[in-house]
Amino acid sequence: MEGGMAPGREHHVGQDIEYAGGPHGGERLRGVVKIGVLRPNAVGDFVFALPALHALKQAYPQAELVLLGKPWHAGFLAERPGPVDRVVVMPQVAGVGAPEDACSDQRAIDDFVARMRAEAFDIVAQMVGGGRYSNPFALRLGSRLTIGARAQGAAALDRWVDHVEPGNRRLALLEIAALAGARLPPMARELEVTVADRQEAARILPPDRTRPLVLLQPGSSDPRRCWPAERFAAVGDALATAGALVAVNGMAGEVGLVRQVIAGMRHPAINLAGALQLGGLCGLLERSTLLVSNDTGPLHLALAIGTPAVGVFWHTNLVDGAPLRPSLLRAAVSAQTRCRTCGIDNRARRCAHQESFVDEVTVDEVRSLALELLQDRRHKEWSSDGVPVHGAG
Predict the structure, then answer these.
(1) Predicted pLDDT at 381
(2) What are the residue ranges of CATH 3.40.50.2000 in the chain?
(3) CATH code linked to domain 10-178
(4) How many CB atoms lie within 10 A of CB 35?
(5) Which of 16, 22, 240, 262 has the fewest CB atoms nearer than 10 Å to its CB?
(6) What is the rounded distance in angstroms from the CA atom of residue 315 to the CA atom of residue 180?
(7) Is the pTM of this model over 0.85?
(8) Is the CB of residue 36 less than 8 Å from the CB of residue 113?
(9) pLDDT number for residue 209
(10) DSSP state at residue 81
């Protein structure tokens, strides 16, 4: 078995697909008109896929790149420059961007599959996970070539690489893109910020040219990744003392958490809980001098835009989520592995408890990283004539 091709399918692939050169197992196809990418995930997971999406678009610049995703993808990516040309919203499919025990409407799934087969994809890239559920689903879509990752026991695609955890997700997805002959292109930034993003950010928080803007992001959808609110407050106070304008961001459901952080600060801070749509957050991140955050979607948006960040990580998540530009990230890492309630090692399987696994990261560590980064950024952001350029929007 060579180039990741499944036994019994190699002859079929060689007969029906014309290649445009390249290393064996990663040849580019000729006549590619349409590429489907299966990636119905959350914000951070989408950001992890951006280098691979850029690579596919560079390899096949004339092809339409269609993301098979979620409703939020459709709204966020509409009119946004980048590698994705179109989003098709998927129904909920158990194990494919939805929990394995999720309720699925089989008729809706069958209708979706029929529509996707009618799209006549040349390539379908499975970028969801190890393929237990997603590989059979990708194969149903009827493309000329299927590529993706394969965990032990999962169905084989035409070309596949081993699914390994933990591992850097950006690099793993680039390895999948390379199965179709794609290579990482040079990028000034992975995610473009639009005029509408900047306008929304300016409406919510007008630019302040007198102070560098620092965002705090104390929430996360995973309680194990949440650093205590009072420690975010302490870091916010240190940054405010150093001259920063501090704003605390959160989703609508995190209003209480954001208020708790602000109430714990001696200095005033701006409450942004529920105030920004995802695009507006991108506009504000572009304008920010730095972000201090848990390992969550806004952290990875900041890094994709090019905004430096201090991130609080559980150690295996840093392996998964490390950016391709390491100079942008200062990571404070927890080495805790066992739940303090039941003693189970959560690297092997997740226990039912919702305690934080990053509690051992100290205020001093994050404060030191944030102040060092603020000082470095302020030095770089002042123009030669003494006019501050931070806060420009």
Answers:
(1) 60
(2) 10-178, 195-381
(3) 3.40.50.2000
(4) 29
(5) 16
(6) 32
(7) no
(8) no
(9) 87
(10) -
